Amino acid sequence: MGFHNGEPLHEDAPLLSNAPLSSPFKTFANIFIAIVGAGVLGLPYSFKRTGWFMGLVMLFLVAFLTYRCMMLLVYTRRKLESNLGFPRINSFGDLGLATCGRIGKLSVDAMIVLSQCGFCVGYLIFISTTLANLVGDTSALLLGFGPKVLFLWGCFPFQLGLNAIPSLTHLAPLSIFADVVDVAAKSVVMVEDVLVSLKNRPPLVAFGSWSALFYGLGVAVYAFEGVGMVLPLEAEAKRKDKFGGILGMGMLVISILYASFAALGYFAFGEETQGIITSNFGQGIISALVKLGLCINLFFTFPLMMNPVYEVVERRLCDSKYCLWLRWLLVLGVSLVALLVPNFADFLSLVGSSICVILSFVLPAMFHYQVFKDEMGWSCMVWDGAVVVFGLVIAVTGTWSSLKGILASNA
Q: InterPro entries attached here (predicted)?
């Protein structure tokens, strides 16, 4: 493999428009929005499986490695653009093209499509499961279908409408509203966790089994889902010399929030912790409003998370032209997959282990080594190699562990 600077690098950066450069505060806010997603809702159940101490160690380990690999992508792009004379590299896919040619770009594009679709499958599972939980354990409501299936298909026509909107600018007000609702809802969840833990004081486990270790790593990797956005975020930062520090601070704040959310959820319910933490709450008005708030957030986030998928697919199949029927077909495919997956947390671990680990750890370290191999010392070489090996081990073992959980749930 060598450098490939004979082809134009013109892939548009997903989710970002040609906006003015961002101040440090806006850069921090964009990092927060890009990373925080639905994966946090499965972290308390992951702590139940791994034990709270092991869960905390894994969470901060994954956060550190994710930050480190994000910076490897930034360093690699800077090297290619400044020292090796490459044209502007806008995205992860462009970096794959520059370092490994078409196969690199194809690999990144494929994994971004799979990971983004995986996130959206998780959203639909959460929405349908949560709404079904709100109406209670009723039997089949219509045509022999249970409430979860009916709610999922009830969302389908509205998602077709939202995903038909070609411009992210028109979705921005809904996105801002959804983020405000999300922060408020998760804050209420954490307060409720504290109150329940003080009342129940369930028995807790600090260390789980070794098999649970790989499961928990997959969920943690899924939770830090913004690696594909780091290059566009750095490109639009006004103070690029401060970007590493801002990213580090953002990852630290997010890690503390994740650890607090996960630990409080497990401390409140112990072995009764459900795959989606909100399923543990009762049927009161406050609980219902919190669940609806989280559903609203994910409902309006769905088309934003699918946008990188549309850009990749339309670029490859439709010459970057808007294609309504293709978008609707992708929404249908995501909905069908959501029907087949019974457990939210198991699915988080599967996507995190099989795809997100490769995107977050393996490819950044490989690209960095490819560009810097002629000048790096043995310690850096060992570091890149260790990250690749770590990622591949987690990918294999975590995927196998998650598949066993999903198959057991279907049995």
A: AA_transpt_TM
